[in-house]
Amino acid sequence: MPGGRHVAAVNGVSFELAAGECLALVGESGCGKSVLASALLGLLPGNARTRGTALLGPDDRIDLLGAEETTLARTVRGRRAGLIPQSPAAHLTPVRTVRSQLEETVRELRDTRRGALRAAAEAAAARAAFPADHLDRYPHQLSGGLAQRAATALALVADAPLLIADEPTTGLDRDLVDRTVDELRRHTDEGHGLLVITHDLAAAARMADRVAVMYAGRIVEVATAADFFGAAGPRHPYARGLLDALPERAFAPIPGLPPELDALPEGCAFAARCDRATDICTTLPALTGGVACHHASEAVDA
Ligand SMILES: Nc1ncnc2c1ncn2[C@@H]1O[C@H](COP(=O)(O)OP(=O)(O)OP(=O)(O)O)[C@@H](O)[C@H]1O
Ligand code: NI
Fold it and tell me: How many domains is the chain partitioned into structurally?
């Protein structure tokens, strides 16, 4: 960071994602979701440091955190791991139309004959609800929502075994959110792995097999979507707070603010906002059995 400050944006994160599975990563703004996505794809700024391993398999397993940039650029990004970026407009090539970018991707990745290129590009656009009569536009001629759908179409056409979608439905109205979510679910069911980052818990409930909740740079809970959104409910007090904040539930926001990432407490980062916190919360709870909370196994007042 400027001024030589050091920010631990993501810490001790560990999870698995299978082919044909969708994992939703949720959590408040600034908790480290996009940094995690960028780290996995080697897209962090040059002054960022990563530690650990992130294996992408099953064949030709590669450690995404240890791989050389040239390897990531040539063989991983776009081919083995796709990204729908959080700011899609900035990632589209400004001087080329959406159609030409889609066709180019098809041409690079598949052995498609010329006539089939156009059809493949148009099919991908349709899947992402990108209107065919806008295909010949340049990125600067697109609204935010259209740029979002263009990025989704590009990711779908690239057909990578792993797709990381960072807020793929921002700026879309509910109808389009549902269409996009259903299309991404279909993509997952075709055998792709999907890590979807979202603020939209309703979208997560609609598409995810499992949910990972991030708070101040750490994963504090991983649960099946059925448990998380169903009768069992989340077990981490923060995760419960996220659900309770929804208008269709208690509509009760979590009081307080998350800690600054350059001034994290040694213990549980949520303790200062948590009504269950006790002395033990000054030590860091490990993620065991899917939850990182000293009080997770205690009964909750309804
Ligand atoms: N290049 C950078 N240099 C320094 N700090 C950064 C940099 N990029 C991100 N951060 C910090 O890392 C933290 C995590 O940011 P990140 O973008 O991952 O959050 P997020 O969970 O994706 O939030 P949002 O939901 O708003 O997209 C933030 O506090 C941010 O200020
Ligand atoms: Ni983000």
Answer: 1
